[in-house]
Amino acid sequence: MIIMLGKCRKTAEMLSWIFEKESEANPHDDPWIEIRLLAGEGAKKSRDIYNGRAYYYKPNDLPELFNALEKLAELGYNVYYGAHLRKENKWRKASGKENVVDNVRVFYVDVDVYHDRGKIKKFIEELGVEETARAIMGGVLEVERQITEELVSSLPRLEPFAVVYTGYGVQYLFISDQPVKKEEFERLQEGLIGYFMSIVRDKIIPPKWPDGEQVDIDVDIKVKDVARILRLPCSVNVKVRELPLQAEVLSLRYDAFVDITDLKRLQDYRKLLVESKKAEHEVEVSQEELDEAGKILAQGLYRLSPEEKNLIRDFFAKMYYEGVRHCITLHGSWWLIERGVCADDIEEIFKWLFDHRDDDPREVKNDRVRALRDNYIRRTKKSGIYGLKTSCIKEAKQRGYIESEEEMVEELQRLDEMLRRKMRIVADTDPLKYSQYLRALAVLDKSRDPNARVEVVEEKKVGGRDGRRKKKFWRKKRKKKVQIVD
């Protein structure tokens, strides 16, 4: 895999301009650029590379990074950078909001176009790698063209400084005409993201998959905090192992600045983010799955005894250190959800870890709790005990936190057997469906009462003040969701 030097040169120009403006806003600091390497699907292990670790560079040192991109791509690592400068270069310190410089000027929006891995792999098998890559890039560029035209013609007029093709989507970067305090950044960023969501929803004609089905376009609502890392242009997107795509800068405009007043005018769009989060908590299922769920959900989730919680907590604590703790939070919480442990007990276990194993400020620990709750609805069937074995335990052994990988796996299996004995599952139930509906329970966060009654609710979409059904909803099937009745 060969990295194109021309694209790297354009990336270097983009980063130089960004960090020049950020440095002007913080003239007395000694700032650093943060780079993070995150393993893609099927990434190879390397003694020189720690997955998720932060590496710090001075702007003049970036050529060293660009020389390493080819090797990183071959190993299967995605490369990310912090668009806002950092105050320190101590990689062991948590890279949170407190590590970002005080004043910022860069705003960003990430639009995901082709994010269904299952479909991507399907079309790779049917059409081949090259044809699928051409189809994806063509669809992404068409979405980018429509969004850019809308931004230029809309009021307020928001002209991006840089537009980046990320492989399966597109990023828009804006530089404000004046610096803002990092405490104010998130509020302005939420309005900008909400504005993009309205454009995608109302103005954009989505591309189609090769089979003719319409593509779902998403604006990433998580890309809103000041410490966020973005995919580095010129690096390779290895989200799908069979189809690595190189990110690149599509356009640069050094005369494009956004008026802070215009960003403040977008605050009404922040409510779209709230609505989007609520939509995530709705679990749509078929009638057949609902019939199966009736048997499963009636069993309810169970509580752990204090002794059982201590056993699980102590097991996690052996590996809960820098570089492994986030992995344990993700895979460990989903393992417990799959085994029917109620959300309250899971939070109690991990809150203990956050309080006793982290020396981070309280606001950082609160962010970890929010991420834990988000995990209930975002993990896939590859997580859980499989992720604990193949990611957490192996990484902990590689870093020297544990002595024996085999002993940790055996202890995990003993704990898993303990949880399985407590599970009350109908004998002929598909385990995957069981985990899906445990997810529904956890999402609703109603598991405080294990004896709560379960029922299926049918939602009817109506429109107009007089209650008449809108024409566009008439042909749609009624939504059905699982809900818990206290």
Structure keywords:
single chain, 486 residues, alpha+beta, 4-stranded antiparallel β-sheet, 47% helix
SSE map:
Elements: H1 5-25, E1 33-39, E2 54-57, H2 62-75, E3 77-82, E4 103-112, H3 117-127, H4 129-153, E5 162-165, E6 169-181, H5 182-202, E7 218-219, E8 229-231, E9 236-237, E10 245-246, E11 248-252, H6 260-264, H7 271-280, H8 287-297, H9 306-317, H10 325-338, H11 343-357, H12 362-378, H13 385-399, H14 405-422, H15 431-444, E12 453-459, H16 471-474, E13 479-485
Antiparallel strand pairs: 1-2, 1-3, 3-8, 4-6, 4-7, 5-6, 5-11, 9-10, 12-13
Task: Give a written overview of the molecule.
- The chain is an alpha+beta fold and 486 residues long.
- Helix content is 47%, strand content 15%.
- α9 packs across α11 and α10 runs antiparallel to α11.
| Overall spatial form | globular
Query: What gap, in angstroms, lies between the N and C termini?
Result: 56 Å
State the secondary-structure class.
Answer: alpha+beta
| Biggest beta-sheet profile | 5 strands, antiparallel
Low-confidence stretches: 281-287, 289-300, 425-434, 441-486
The rounded Rg comes to 24 Å
Order of SSEs: HEEHEEHHEEHEEEEEHHHHHHHHHHEHE
Q: What is the strand content?
A: 5-15%
Estimate the helix proportion, in percent. 40-55%
Q: How many beta-strand runs?
A: 13
Biggest β-sheet: strands ordered side by side in the sheet: 7-4-6-5-11
Number of separate helices: 16
**How confident is the prediction overall: mean pLDDT?**
77
